[in-house]
Design brief:
Elements (H helix, E strand, L loop, with lengths): L3 E5 L5 E6 L5 E8 L13 H8 L9 H9 L4 E6 L4 E8 L3 H13 L5 H19 L2 H14 L12 H6 L2 H11 L5 E7 L3 H12 L21 E6 L4 E9 L7 H12 L6 H9 L6 E7 L4 E9 L4 H17 L4 H19 L2 H15 L5 H9 L3 H11 L6 E7 L1
Parallel strand pairs: 2-6, 7-11
Antiparallel strand pairs: 1-2, 3-5, 3-6, 4-5, 8-10, 8-11, 9-10
Helix pairs in contact: 3-8, 9-15, 10-11, 11-15, 12-14
C-alpha cells in the first residue's frame, strides 16, 4: 500500500503507519495474532475474558485511571476479540497520541489481573452471555459456528461457557499469555496526521523496551467438514434461520471472486438479490444478510434471516432459488460491471473509516504478510470474469454441502 511506513523493532514487534493529512484524530492500536481458536477446551472464553481484564488494572494503574486517561480528553479506548485476533485500540486528538500509545502498551502487556476484578468481571461476562442468548438473531450466529465447525476450536463460542467462565483465576490468564504471546505476531498500527519520525520515535520509546516473547504453538487446522442440520425449539415469536458452510481461507486465490458473489447475493446493499426477493417482493423478512469470513486455513459462508414460522420453509426455498440462479445463469456484461462498481464503491467508503483502516493494516500484515492497496484490490476485482463467479457459485452453493440451523418457537 502506498504511503505506508513499516518498522520492525528488535523484539519483533512491527509498527505500521499511514498518514492521512485531512484528519485531526489519530487511531492506533495493537493487533495480536491470538484469538478464541487458540484456547484449550478448559480455556474456552479466556481470550475474551483477557480483553475485559486488560482494562481492570496494571502495575501502575487502577481501573478508574485506565478508563479516565483518554476519556477525560475526549478520546475513546476499546477492544475486541475474534476467532483469530485480539485488538486493543484508541482514538484521540493528535496531540494525545503519546498518551494513547503509552496507555495501550500498559494495558496490553502489564495487566495484573486483580482477583477482585476477575470476580466482578466474571459476572459481567455471564450477563453478556445471557444477553446474547436472549437475542436470537445474535445467538444463532454464534451457534451456527458450532454447527459448521463442530468440536474444532473455530466452533466454540468466543464468550466461553458458564462452566469455564466460573473457573478462571489469575494464573489462568498468565498461563494463556505465556502459551500464546509472540512479539513476532504483534502489530502496532496507526493512522493519523502525524509526522512519520514522531510515530517511529515514540513507538520505539515505549515498545522497544518490551522483552521478546515467542511461542512454537501451532493452531489446530480444520480439515474435515460435514454438512449438519439442527432444529432448536426456543421461547420465540419469530423463527430464525442460518444457512451456510465452510469457505475459502484468507489467502485463497478465489477469495475475491467469492467476496463479490456474496455481495451480489446478500451484501449490505438494499439491491442484493436476497433482500429484493425476501423483503421487497414478498415482505417475509425485515433483514437478510449473507456473510463471508475468511480465516487462516478455512472460512465461513452464512446467510441469516428471521421470519414468521409459517413463512420459514417458503423463505428457505426462495434462498435456495436465488443461489441456484447464480449457479445456472452467468451474469451479463452490464450486470457484472455494476456488481464490480458496487463492490469497489463499498470498499472505498470502508477505507474512509480510519479506525477500520487502522485495524485492517494490522490484520493484513499478520495474515497476508503484506498490505494490499485499494488499487491492488480494485485490479483483482476488475479481472473477475462472469465464468469465475459461475464456477465459484457451483462449488460453494452446492445444496448437498450446506448446513442449516433453525430456531423455532416452542
Amino acid at each position: 500500500m502506498e504511503d505506508v511506513s513499516l518498522w520492525t523493532l528488535s523484539n519483533g514487534i512491527r509498527i505500521v503507519y499511514k498518514k492521512v493529512p485531512t484528519t485531526k484524530i489519530v487511531h492506533c492500536g495493537f493487533v495480536l495474532d491470538i484469538g478464541s481458536r487458540d484456547e484449550k477446551p478448559e480455556q474456552l472464553g479466556l481470550a475474551h475474558f483477557w480483553e475485559h481484564m486488560a482494562f481492570k488494572g496494571t502495575k501502575k494503574r487502577k481501573a478508574f485511571h485506565i478508563i479516565n486517561r483518554l476519556e477525560s480528553v475526549g478520546g475513546e479506548l476499546n477492544a475486541y476479540t475474534s476467532k483469530e485476533k485480539i485488538c486493543f485500540y484508541a482514538s484521540v486528538l493528535n496531540t494525545y497520541f503519546e498518551s494513547a500509545l503509552e496507555l495501550l502498551k500498559d494495558i496490553t502487556f502489564d495487566s495484573i489481573f486483580p482477583e477482585k476484578q476477575i470476580d466482578k468481571e466474571r459476572k459481567v461476562i455471564l450477563e453478556e452471555m445471557a444477553m446474547y442468548y436472549d437475542s436470537p438473531e445474535d445467538a444463532i450466529q454464534d451457534e451456527f459456528d458450532n454447527v459448521v465447525f463442530g468440536s474444532h476450536p473455530l466452533g466454540s463460542n468466543i464468550l466461553g461457557t458458564n462452566e469455564t467462565i466460573n473457573s478462571f483465576q489469575r494464573q489462568d490468564f498468565r498461563n494463556f499469555l505465556k502459551e500464546n504471546l509472540d512479539t513476532g505476531k504483534i502489530i502496532f498500527s496507526c493512522v493519523g496526521n502525524l509526522e512519520e519520525k514522531k510515530v517511529e520515535k515514540l513507538a520505539r520509546k515505549y515498545l522497544e523496551e518490551l522483552p521478546q516473547f515467542s511461542t512454537n504453538k501451532k493452531r489446530a487446522p480444520f480439515n474435515v467438514y460435514q454438512p449438519n442440520v439442527q432444529r432448536i425449539s426456543r421461547p420465540l415469536t419469530q423463527s430464525q434461520c442460518a444457512i451456510g458452510r465452510t469457505a475459502y481461507a484468507i489467502n485463497h486465490r478465489q477469495r475475491y471472486d467469492f467476496f463479490m458473489l456474496i455481495n451480489i447475493l446478500g451484501g449490505p446493499g438494499l439491491n442484493s438479490r436476497l433482500n429484493m426477493a425476501l423483503r421487497e417482493k414478498y415482505g417475509f423478512v425485515y433483514s437478510v444478510d449473507a456473510n463471508y469470513s475468511a480465516y487462516l486455513d478455512t472460512g465461513l459462508f452464512a446467510i441469516f434471516f428471521g421470519t414468521e414460522p409459517k413463512q420459514l420453509q417458503r423463505s428457505i426455498k426462495i434462498v435456495m432459488r436465488e443461489m441456484r440462479k447464480l449457479k445456472e445463469q452467468k451474469l451479463g456484461v452490464l450486470q457484472l460491471q455494476r456488481a464490480k462498481e458496487q463492490l469497489m464503491g463499498q470498499l472505498a467508503m470502508a477505507e474512509e473509516n480510519n479506525t477500520s483502516l487502522m485495524l485492517m493494516l494490522g490484520k493484513s500484515l499478520l495474515d497476508m504478510k503484506t498490505i494490499p492497496s485499494l488499487e491492488d484490490i480494485y485490479s483483482k476485482i476488475k479481472n473477475i470474469a462472469a465464468e469465475d463467479l459461475l464456477a465459484v457459485a457451483n462449488e460453494m452453493f452446492d445444496e448437498d454441502n450446506l448446513s442449516y440451523l433453525t430456531f423455532v418457537p416452542n
